[in-house]
């Protein structure tokens, strides 16, 4: 069993008067892709945002690479090598694709200072990023914006990628392209925590899986085992994979 890069132990999160997470237990093995599944409103996005410090855990402990980050500020957490792609992608629409990438490459003041070999690798994963390099990011299609959002997250080496529903609203051909990119990232040893509603996406990519319901993790284990157990799928998700 791989060691755990990220663990959540008994994590509770309140947002205003609402108690959203009720003691989340989650382990993300190093070098694997962990799928976080569950019905809408189960607490998946809140879990991601709590890990990043965007919402503060009111109870429990979050440990990343042996360090307690429960009370750390979001910039400190990002500085440890965690990248986050939110569901809304968070791109700067008025900036060009190039300017978005330069902002994400914290060590670069201009595009020429981005690691050239890494940039060419990103272009090989997402040719649209190179094609529209000098275009305003707001003019891109939904799929192209998603490619840019993931490209920004990997423009520098990261220990952990946290991605919220990367296939949402995308055409099947673009989803296949995204799957290929994540497979390459996995091959490079990048650890990924991914929220996804596309079940075929989850089956093809996931190593481990955690299923949430009502603010807690109700199942954790092998993605392959869940994909092969229709009765378990129905009980956890109300559907068959």
From TrEMBL:
Gene3D superfamilies: P-loop containing nucleotide triphosphate hydrolases. GO terms for molecular function: ATP binding; ATP hydrolysis activity; branched-chain amino acid transmembrane transporter activity. SUPFAM superfamilies: P-loop containing nucleoside triphosphate hydrolases (SSF52540). GO terms for biological process: L-amino acid transport. Pfam families: ABC_tran. CDD domains: ABC_TM1139_LivF_branched. PROSITE patterns: ABC_TRANSPORTER_1, ABC_TRANSPORTER_2. Residues 6-239 form the ABC transporter domain. Keywords: Amino-acid transport, ATP-binding, Cell membrane, Membrane, Nucleotide-binding, Transport. Belongs to the ABC transporter superfamily. This is ABC transporter ATP-binding protein.
